[in-house]
Amino acid sequence: MATWQEFAESAPELAERVRARLAAHQHHVLATLRRDGAPRVSGTEVSWRGPDLVLGSMPGARKALDLRRDGRFALHANPGSAEDLIGGVDAKLAGRAVEVTGEEHRAWVEEAGPPSPDSHLFRLDLTEVTTTGVAADQTHLVITHWTPERGVRTFQRA
């Protein structure tokens, strides 16, 4: 697994594209695992705090309880409209969410001013990042995939 900063240092161009996609819209789709193993999708917002990509949650929200029990997640950046994707990429990230507690959580509450001081904060450690876009000549998809072990690999699909 890697922090956002480690990912960005390993794959700076890919990280720039993914960050731009995440920053283009406030709301994204988070997938977590319910207690019975079934997927749960929730809306979420993400931001950066130091070297980390983070997400917050209201106290006791189902997604937060899911992540506390099993930190595995998938995050699909809001693709926006079809026009937004022209010349751009669709971005997906996966990994493990780790709840931030203690002094670091208190500092976040003071800095960010979330609606409630007992809001959850999770650091998103990455196991993979994928972007999908259409080639400039519009003839095929270009899929770029990164993992900490294998780095960046690019595939084409007709």
TrEMBL record:
This is Pyridoxamine 5'-phosphate oxidase N-terminal domain-containing protein. GO terms for molecular function: coenzyme F420 binding; oxidoreductase activity, acting on the CH-CH group of donors. It comes from Saccharopolyspora hordei. Residues 15-132 form the Pyridoxamine 5'-phosphate oxidase N-terminal domain. It holds the Pfam family PNPOx_N. Gene3D superfamilies: Electron Transport, Fmn-binding Protein, Chain A. GO terms for cellular component: cytosol. Transmembrane segments: none annotated. The lineage of its organism: Bacteria, Bacillati, Actinomycetota, Actinomycetes, Pseudonocardiales.
